[in-house]
Specification:
Radius of gyration: 20 Å
Strand order of the largest sheet: 2-5-8-1-9
Largest sheet: 5 strands, parallel
Strand content: 5-15%
Order of helices and strands: HHEHEHEEEHEEEHEHHHEHHEHH
Structural class: alpha/beta
Number of helices: 13
Distance between the termini: 8 Å
Number of strands: 11
């Protein structure tokens, strides 16, 4: 078996991916890797969870992404009194027409920023489950598909926990990747203060949503040799066997790692996956899917450390990735 993607298609994808990242980096200075992860999630039909303190550019990242792909964007500030209908939309009775009319909620956008998602009640958080998993909204028994591409970028503040509701594991598992923008380094901070960063309103469009869907369609044709499938399997099983974990990564996590590795390979101009692709994405894909043992957590062990040790202990295939 070989890749169904030509070398020319791989080169086009890699070049386009680079231009998309370059464009967003004009507004989000010094955070190229996080921008690459965000586009990888978008092109893998996934969603991104950002765990960050305020003021690191989460909203700007979402707006810059949507402007780059010339799509629509919306922002939902999650609060304890937010209701599911505030996200999905509601049916309102029109007295003149004598019938109910559906008013779309902010979820009907290409890029949706769910700001401080852990401040809403579990009932409201669960309203996102069908949307994120199925790409559709069901209100009053009527199912309405969302536009493509579609991506949720959710944020949560790791510092202020008062008045928050911890995301249940079932919903955490719906996020393809979890990462953090963090503060920029000194050089990037100086560039921002000197005016090097442009505002998101100045970000030009690079491609249309249809082209994004074309890129998404290409990712399924990237070749993953059996030895690498076995490598992903062993990595996921190692998270379950680790002494510090109470629950390891799910099968959905294994599928997610395989899918994003295909996108990551194409983003670097290749129509085949290598072990380095899998290693580069293991932490953002698997880190939030494991539950630590309480004793290990008390001792200061983090999910990042567990995934790092799993990568060290699990030997990658000795054979190079097959090329078409």
């Amino acid at each position: 078996m070989s890749s169904s993607i030509t070398v020319e298609q791989s080169a086009w994808f890699g070049d386009t991916f680079g231009r998309l990242v370059d464009n967003v980096e004009q507004a989000i200075v010094g955070k190229r890797h996080v921008i690459e992860l965000a586009f990888t999630a978008l092109l893998s039909r996934g969603h991104l969870l950002l765990e960050d303190v305020p003021g690191t550019g989460k909203t700007a990242l979402a707006r810059a992404l949507s402007r780059t792909v010339q799509g629509t964007s919306s922002r939902v500030q999650f609060t304890p009194d937010l209701l599911p209908g505030d996200i999905t939309g509601i049916s309102v009775y029109d007295q003149k027409r004598g019938e109910f009319e559906f008013h779309k909620g902010p979820i009907f956008a290409n890029i949706v920023l769910a700001d401080e998602i852990n401040r809403a009640s579990p009932k409201t958080q669960s309203a996102l489950l069908e949307v994120m998993e199925e790409g559709q909204v069901t209100v009053d028994g009527v199912t309405r598909p969302l536009d493509r591409p579609f991506m949720v970028i959710a944020t949560q503040n790791p510092i202020e926990q008062a008045g928050t509701y911890r995301l249940p594991e079932a919903q955490l598992d719906r996020f393809l990747m979890k990462t953090s923008l963090g503060y920029p380094d000194s050089a990037s901070t100086r560039r921002i203060l000197e005016g090097a960063a442009v505002t998101t309103d100045q970000i030009p469009g690079i491609i249309l949503p249809k082209a994004v869907n074309d890129m998404i369609a290409l990712t399924g044709g990237v070749f993953v040799e059996p030895a690498l499938i076995d490598y992903i399997t062993r990595l996921v099983e190692a998270t379950r066997d680790a002494a510090q974990t109470r629950l390891g990564a799910s099968v959905r996590g294994a599928l997610a790692l395989a899918n994003v590795s295909r996108t990551w390979a194409l983003a670097h101009g290749r129509n085949f996956v290598t072990p380095d692709d899998i290693k580069a994405l293991a932490l953002p894909v698997l880190g939030h899917r494991i539950i630590l043992d309480p004793e290990a957590e008390f001792d200061g062990v983090t999910a990042d450390q567990v995934i790092g040790q799993v990568l060290l202990d699990t030997a990658p295939p000795t054979q190079g990735a097959a090329q078409s």
